[in-house]
TrEMBL record:
SUPFAM superfamilies: NAD(P)-binding Rossmann-fold domains. PROSITE patterns: ADH_SHORT. This is SDR family oxidoreductase. Transmembrane segments: none annotated. The keyword 4Fe-4S does not apply. InterPro entries: KR_dom, NAD(P)-bd_dom_sf, Sc_DH/Rdtase_CS, SDR_fam. It is an enzyme of class 1 (oxidoreductase). Residues 3-186 form the Ketoreductase domain. The keyword Chaperone does not apply. It comes from Streptomyces doebereineriae. Belongs to the short-chain dehydrogenases/reductases (SDR) family.
Length: 246
């Protein structure tokens, strides 16, 4: 039976790969993102699209209204929107503390607040039983990200997922996190990654290769399956062995 699947950040990278996997199974997919033109060009057969800034409460209310009208029930909710903020407008100040405040605020807004607002807005629409809430975190939640802000924001998803698992478990709904390592073919690094950095990241793995959006999408698809119905409150790392499980 076809399910209703909502994917934030669904126009590119991991979100797009996940959308393609679910659509191929016959599920009805709704792609969310800030850039309407990117969503429209995603090319996922039969997918609905809705452009919104998920860090804005009013725009999230718009998403919730759209879901109520077009889908009704949400079977799978996947949060893949996020990033380090490097594509955001820079801080308009030369004060180093202003830069710190901007960086941390942007990272928490992009990676944590967006997920929390969308989840809370749609929580009552999750299928009961059988609903799935899935968050895309990062290896940075375990080993840092250089500035601290991105890794801290992604790490914040973990206890939120645990709390949701406790809250929603009695309704037959699971909540889990997937934490990828280095994944190629995304917009995460902006332009091309520095070759030396890529070599180091691949060298950290046991598999000797970079991850792909499809690697993460396949894990998300399994966690959304009936076979994973007793898996909840977990963080599944997809990083080729670059970081041990915890």
């Amino acid at each position: 039976m076809a399910r209703n699947v909502i994917i934030s950040g669904g126009g590119t990278g991991i979100g797009l790969a996940a959308a393609q996997v679910f659509a191929a199974e016959g599920d009805r997919v709704l792609l969310l993102g800030r850039r309407a033109e990117v969503l429209e060009k995603a090319g996922v057969p039969g997918a609905l699209t809705y452009a919104a800034d998920l860090g804005d409460v009013d725009e999230v209310r718009g998403v919730v209204g759209f879901v109520e009208r077009e889908l009704g029930t949400v079977d799978v909710l996947i949060h893949s929107a996020g990033g380090t903020g490097q594509l955001e407008p820079p801080v308009d100040s030369s004060d180093p503390l202003d830069a710190v405040a901007h960086n941390w605020t942007v990272n928490f807004r992009l990676n944590l607040l967006t997920a929390a607002l969308l989840t809370e807005g749609l929580k009552e629409r999750l299928a009961s039983p059988g609903g799935r809430v899935l968050f895309v975190s990062s290896i940075a939640a375990y080993r840092g990200s250089g500035s601290g802000a991105y890794g801290a924001a992604k790490a914040g998803l973990h206890p939120y997922a645990h709390d949701l698992a406790r809250e929603l478990g009695p309704r037959g709904i699971t909540a889990n996190v997937v934490a990828p390592g280095y994944i190629e073919d995304t917009e995460f690094f902006g332009g091309a990654i520095d070759p030396a950095r890529r070599e180091r990241l691949v060298g950290d793995t046991s598999t000797g290769r970079a991850g792909t959006p499809g690697d993460v999408a396949a894990t998300l698809h399994w966690l959304a399956s009936a076979g994973a119905g007793h898996v909840t409150s977990q963080v599944v790392q997809v990083n080729g062995g670059a970081e041990r499980g915890h």
